[in-house]
Write a structure and sequence with these properties.
The protein is α/β, with parallel strands linked by helices. It is built from eleven helices and 14 strands. Helix 3 runs parallel beside helix 4, helix 6 packs across helix 7 and helix 10 runs parallel beside helix 11. It binds phosphoenolpyruvate (PEP) and manganese (II) ion (MN).
Length: about 350
């Protein structure tokens, strides 16, 4: 970390900064320029961040040299981590298809979607029982009954399940049943929830927030890792831009940038990114070609009557066709698939 002093900073100001660094167990290296004096800080950078530098007399600004995340950074952990969801390894070695209903609506609907996911080559089932809806009048999910249905879908097909939590109070019972807990885009900076899943004994999928930079996304992941849970999968699901022709703008470059920065697996949810059925397959193919570790796709047998996100859900036969296409593309790219 470097503290840049104002041109009019006095010797007493400079000494006060150096003294503050020493009081935090660090060392201060003062370098006097013709206009500005800069002070290099050596020591525990995380602790130095507690200091209100800009409020100190004579301080102009502070530059952080290191990254604001450590545990999830690739720097200290060059090889990519593989996170096991049930028996399915998610990582760079094999490409994974995750599919299932956006929301669990009934036993029949969830079972049809689960079987369609499995038939299409998915090795992880998605399905939600707590839905973070924009409108309070929209379907909010079946809650614990939905979890029982998902557990039944897993018994029937052997697919491990990923389920979203929207509140700290849901973490214990979702962690008990699900194979992976998901934090959705709207809660991706709910720091209390991040801390809570950091204590859970299950892998966590962390979606990118609607208006989150890649750096903020990795800092959110750091909250989870810092509490002791390093089984984290990142999921790019589109960000909000000025472009209204898709629900969100799929940021594949952000996905690749995240992969370069972190050792954690990074996957893509094209369904929530585009919001339109006919655009899901092209973006799923693009995600695989760009190096994503998995894709996560919404499936529904009767999208017109779906209680959540029908316009983006693939019909079972469309899911089957996409699974086949992804299999062929993966083979052409020399990327084995999880089967
Ligand atoms: C979902 O996957 O169903 C979901 C709610 O996604 P997001 O949090 O990305 O909007
Ligand atoms: Mn959805």
């Amino acid at each position: 970390m470097v503290v840049v002093m104002r041109a009019d900073a006095t010797e007493a100001d400079i000494e006060a900064v150096a003294e503050r660094v020493r009081s935090y167990g660090g060392e201060a290296f003062v370098s006097r320029g013709t206009v500005h004096t800069i002070i290099g800080l050596v020591g525990d950078t995380e602790r130095f961040q507690e200091i209100a530098w800009k409020q100190m007399s004579g301080v102009d600004h502070v530059i952080r040299v290191g990254k604001p995340y450590k545990m999830v950074a690739r720097d200290l952990h060059p090889e990519t981590t593989t996170v096991k969801v049930g028996t399915t390894p998610v990582g760079r070695e094999r490409f994974t298809i995750i599919a299932g209903p956006c929301a669990v609506e009934s036993e029949d609907q969830a079972m049809i979607a689960t079987k369609a996911a499995k038939a299409a080559g998915a090795t992880i089932l998605r399905g939600d029982v707590y839905k973070p809806r924009t409108s309070p009048y929209s379907f909010q999910g079946l809650g614990e009954r939905g979890l029982e249905i998902l557990a039944e879908c897993r018994r029937e097909t052997g697919l491990p399940i990923i389920v979203e939590v929207v509140d700290v109070s849901q973490v214990p019972h979702v962690a008990e049943v699900a194979d992976c807990i998901r934090i959705g885009t709207r809660n991706s900076q709910n720091f209390e929830l991040l801390k809570e899943v950091g204590l859970a004994n299950k892998p966590v999928m962390l979606k990118r927030g609607l208006a989150m930079t890649v750096e903020e996304w990795l800092q959110a992941a750091e909250y989870i890792a810092q509490r002791g849970n390093s089984e984290i999968i990142l999921c790019e699901r589109g960000i909000r831009t000025f472009e209204p022709s898709t629900r969100n703008t799929l940021d594949l470059a952000g996905m690749a940038a995240a992969q370069a920065e972190t050792h954690l697996p990074v996957i893509v949810d094209p369904s929530h990114a585009v919001g339109k059925r006919h655009l899901v397959a092209p973006m799923a193919r693009a995600a695989l070609a760009a190096g994503a570790d998995a894709v996560m796709i919404d499936v529904h047998h009767d999208p017109e009557h779906a209680l959540c996100d029908g316009p983006q859900a693939l019909l079972p036969e469309e899911m089957a066709a996409l699974g086949e296409e992804l299999g062929r593309l993966a083979e052409a790219l020399g990327r084995p698939m999880n089967r």
